[in-house]
Design goal:
Layout lengths: L1 E8 L4 H14 L3 E8 L7 E9 L14 E4 L19 E5 L4 H4 L2 H6 L4 E5 L1 H9 L5 H12 L4 H11 L3 H19 L5
Parallel strand pairs: 1-4, 4-5, 5-6
Antiparallel strand pairs: 1-3, 2-3
Length: about 190
Amino acid sequence: MIEIRIHGRGGQGVVTAAELLASAAFRDGKVAQAFPSFGSERMGAPVTAFCRISTISIRSREPVGHPNVLLILDSTLLHQMDVFRGLSDQGIVLMNSTRKVEELGLKDWMFQHPEVEFYSFPASDLAERHLGRSISNVGMVSGFASITGALTKESVQSAIKEKFPGKLGEVNALVADEAFEYVSSHPVQA
């Protein structure tokens, strides 16, 4: 089972990212669950969502305390809360950022966790180019699929088009396609 925790802020599509991951997993014939954890529900407040993807029945219903994968949609949360809490020693971190590990203030953390795979890429920039808004959730979901191979590109595209019908779905699918290709063709590991 892959356990994913997603960190971001209200209005960034954190909950939608979890739903898209689960929907894509179903399309790939897997079992999945997705659910949010809110503090105060307001724009800009920290939001966490969870997703589990498995090939067998998922019995657990509690929040993901020990994720295999972290998706961090907003790097400003790094020093505001412990986003790395409970991360597996062999975990994967995918961060929406154009900054290097040193610029993010994570050099010591990376040194202490050498087995963790850390990736960053400009998901917000890709969305801005196509949507005119820097909503990184679709790019992060597609980046997850590209890095892990846990979801197919086609299932992600299909989940997006169902969630966002019409022109919005088509444009978001372009963001996802570009993110998938960007992550697979660029050496984004920090």
